[in-house]
Write a sequence for this structure.
């Protein structure tokens, strides 16, 4: 899948913002992982993932977010999540990822938390 | 409503899970499942099919089979794979492997949440080896009683 159909990438004050524009089922999740791992290679250290346009996320996608957040933290950075729909919040809570990832109501509050 | 069976076979590739997820969502909605429950059903379908594709298929061409049975009160989904090409671990459903996945699962794990999600969200969740050497996963969702209010 062309990653431009999956997400929009922006940057503000040195923080990379990934706005996901599709549901994150198995197929899109593997592309999300590739894009996130590409950011690690580029030495990006601060990332906000905006999920406001996402109505479905599976455990592969959540796992990719958790994995990249852990690796960023090892280098003093972080990955923060924002704008979760209710059913996404339920999935994060069920897996327990809410206790591992920092989740904010809005993109601005996630950016301000860095 | 009489019990109806729908049978599908899709290639063992992630790409084909998404249209099935959309189909099962539309079907569940048409049957009268509440919005939140439709999302649960779609997530479980995604997780079960993903496991069948990644752990229960020797290659893309072997495919996975789905049997969806509906009646006025239930939606039942059976996902059947034929096992991985690994001769030592053709059937990924071994007691040891399931125990290992369950024991190692934690909030910070990147993988291994799929079975937990399916067990947590489905009203019934069963896994068993099949005659093809793969795994059958059966999940059942019951419709709420008409006077039950979604919260």
């Amino acid at each position: 899948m062309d990653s431009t159909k999956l997400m929009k990438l922006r940057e503000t004050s040195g923080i990379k913002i990934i706005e996901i524009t599709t549901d994150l089922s198995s197929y899109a999740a593997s592309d999300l992982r590739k894009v996130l791992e590409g950011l690690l290679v580029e030495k990006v250290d601060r990332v906000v993932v905006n999920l406001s346009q996402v109505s479905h996320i599976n455990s592969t996608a959540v796992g990719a977010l958790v994995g990249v957040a852990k690796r960023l933290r090892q280098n003093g950075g972080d990955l923060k999540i924002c704008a979760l729909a209710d059913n996404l919040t339920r999935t994060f809570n069920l897996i327990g990822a809410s206790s591992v990832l920092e989740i904010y109501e809005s993109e601005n509050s996630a950016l301000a938390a860095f | 409503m009489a019990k109806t069976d729908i049978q599908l076979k899709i290639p063992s590739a992630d790409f084909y899970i998404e249209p099935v997820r959309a189909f099962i969502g539309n079907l569940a909605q048409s049957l009268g499942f509440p919005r939140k429950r439709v999302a649960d059903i779609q997530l479980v379908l995604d997780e079960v099919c993903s496991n069948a594709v990644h752990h229960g298929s020797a290659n893309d061409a072997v495919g996975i089979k789905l049997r969806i049975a509906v009646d006025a009160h239930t939606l039942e989904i059976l996902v059947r794979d034929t096992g991985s090409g690994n001769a030592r671990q053709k059937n990924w459903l071994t007691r040891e492997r399931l125990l290992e996945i369950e024991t190692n699962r934690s909030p910070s794990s990147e993988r291994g949440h799929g079975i937990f999600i399916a067990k947590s969200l489905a009203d019934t969740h069963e896994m068993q080896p099949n005659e093809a050497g793969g795994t059958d996963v059966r999940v059942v969702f019951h419709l709420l009683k008409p006077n039950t209010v979604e919260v």
